[in-house]
Write a structure and sequence with these properties.
- By secondary structure, this protein is of the alpha/beta class.
- It has 10 helices and 11 strands.
- Strand 9 and strand 10 form a beta hairpin.
- The model has no long low-confidence stretch (mean pLDDT about 95).
- Belongs to the metallo-beta-lactamase superfamily.
């Protein structure tokens, strides 16, 4: 079975070179385009990530504190998740699966809108969140803010699906745990008319995979080496979730 895959732009932000490319690009800044991905076909309407909240203030306050004002997210008027879905004739109620990779404010903030969807989270990432008190990279409040956490473990709990390291949501729609960026990072593999698409935050841009350069903000370099090798060997279409070049590579955001 094959699916249509559509990129949805969520906003832009700048990061310093060594965050994108490990131990290189020291004097550069790079613009990232944060994206959600809509997957449709065979009775499935899946969404990879729900995008940042309507109010960017709290997230941008944190990003500005870490990297400075240049890093804050800039969003066009039509880039909120509900507006982007509407462009493709989809409402939040139509979504059957939400896949979160990783757990961050720009992926989880609108989960409450998707009241009919299975909420799919890497089991490794879920366990890490609930068993880790201090971490140099993961901040609990910016991974799963309290209101989202309460929603997930109460009203939405019957719909929360913890993903095994290798999992299948439907024939032709698979996930595998990749790590690299966060403990909740996965690769979403989708069979499309143009081949297998690999969608993930474990690689920020295509160059990470093609040249084997780990993202600088990786939590484990060996996971990067293994994940990028697997993607090179199995994917026909690489869809890094922050790559500004995706919209040139896939005109109008249509991957397959």
């Amino acid at each position: 079975m094959v699916y249509d895959v559509q990129i949805l732009p969520m906003g832009r932000g700048d990061i310093p070179g060594p965050e994108l490319f490990w131990m290189s690009s020291w004097n550069d800044w790079h613009t990232l385009l944060f994206q959600s991905v809509l997957i449709r076909g065979n009775g499935v309407t899946a969404l990879v990530n729900t995008g940042p909240a309507a109010d960017l203030g709290p997230m941008n306050a944190h990003w500005s504190l870490v990297l400075g004002e240049r890093a804050v997210m800039r969003r066009e008027d039509d880039e909120f998740i509900v507006d982007q879905l509407a462009k493709h004739g989809v409402t939040p109620a139509d979504i059957t699966h939400v896949i979160l990779t990783p757990l961050q404010l720009y992926t989880v903030s609108n989960v409450k809108l998707f009241s009919n969807a299975q909420i799919c989270i890497a089991e490794k990432g879920w366990v890490h969140f609930h068993t880790t008190h201090e971490h140099p990279h993961d901040n609990r409040a910016t991974s799963l803010p309290d209101d989202i956490l309460v929603h997930l473990v109460t009203e939405a709990w019957p719909r929360v699906r913890l993903l095994a390291d290798e999992d299948e949501l439907a024939p032709g729609l698979r996930t595998w745990w990749s790590g690299v960026h966060h403990r909740a990072s996965v690769v979403v593999e989708v069979d499309t008319p143009n081949g297998v698409a690999a969608i993930s935050d474990s690689f920020f841009v295509r160059e990470n995979v093609e040249k084997g350069i780990p993202i600088g903000i990786n939590e484990n370099m060996y996971e990067a080496i293994a994940a990028y090798k697997r993607v090179r060997e199995t994917a026909d279409l690489i869809v890094p979730l922050y790559d500004l070049g995706n919209l040139d590579r896939y005109p109008e955001g249509k991957v397959g």
